[in-house]
Amino acid sequence: MGFAVKMEEVxxxxxxxxxxxNMTANQVMGKIxxxxxxxxxxxxxxxxxxSNNEEEFEHEAIDLAVSCMxxxxxxxxxx
Length: 79
Known about the structure:
By secondary structure, the chain is an all-alpha fold. The chain has three helices and no strands.
């Protein structure tokens, strides 16, 4: 399954939370920083342990990508 399809699945699974449209760009940037930190931790854990937990790494990468997409939507919505 492709990365974009997995991103869409994550978005659909989170529909119940309400939209990011109510968040400010600064709030979304905070979310991006959190997601990047989680991805970085996962990368370090995988590297140090020698494990290749690709599934968890991909999950964190998708979360980061979704957050970046939210920011783009926030910044381009009113053009």
